[in-house]
Amino acid sequence: MKRTLTILSSTIFLGCSNPHIFVLNDTKQNKYFVSESINQAFEKNEIDRSPLIVINGIPFRYNKDQDTIILPLKKSDIISLDFLNKNSSRIIYNEKENDGAIIIGAKIQNK
Q1: Are 44 and 86 within 8 A, CB to CB?
Q2: Residues 63-95 as b or e (16 or more Cβ within 10 Å = b)
Q3: Per-residue model confidence as pLDDT tens digits over 8-27
Q4: DSSP classification of residue 23
Q5: Which PROSITE patterns does its entry note (predicted)?
Q6: Taking the CB of residue 33, how many other CB atoms lie within 10 A of it?
Q7: Residue 53: closest CA among 27, 30, 23
Q8: Is 110 buried (19+), middle (13-18) or exposed (0-12) by CB count in 10 A?
Q9: Which residue among 50, 66, 81, 102 is least crowded, i.e. fewest CB within 10 A of its CB?
Q10: Taking the model in full, what pTM does it have?
Q11: DSSP codes joined into one string, 42-104
Q12: Rg, Å, the chain Cα set
């Protein structure tokens, strides 16, 4: 019984401890550019599993239950990528958003 509980708790902990995968509308080579930076910020404890994504000042809403999030950008569209810790994002954006924030500055495309 003890062994089963240990395995179950390890599975839950490991399964819930990684951030989402954020994928760009790009080729396979650049597809995970944002996710790599997010993983580094996650490892440094700057953000948690479901951070707020802000693109050019507008919060990007995504389903936090999904594992893969597709961002409507290509790597060539991204000008800057910054992170806000949990406390800063809570103060600036919303009391509910407490997993930190990813601030993306992007080129504006006029179509």
Answers
A1: no
A2: eeeeeebebebbeebbeeeebbbbeebbeeeee
A3: 343 343 444 567 888 998 88
A4: E
A5: PROKAR_LIPOPROTEIN (PS51257)
A6: 19
A7: 23
A8: exposed
A9: 66
A10: 0.76
A11: HHTTSS-SS-EEEETTEEEP--TT-SEEEES--GGGEEEEEEE-HHHHHHHT-SS--S-EEEE
A12: 16
CA–CA separation, 87 and 90 (whole Å) = 5
Instruction: List 71's β-bridge partners, or say none.
Output: 24
- Looking at residue 110, its amino acid is N
Amino acid at 3: R
Burial of residue 36 (number of CB atoms within 10 Å: 0-12, 13-18, 19+): exposed
Token readout for 48 is 């948690």
Give CA–CA dist 23/37, Å, rounded: 12
- Please name the amino acid found at residue 111: K
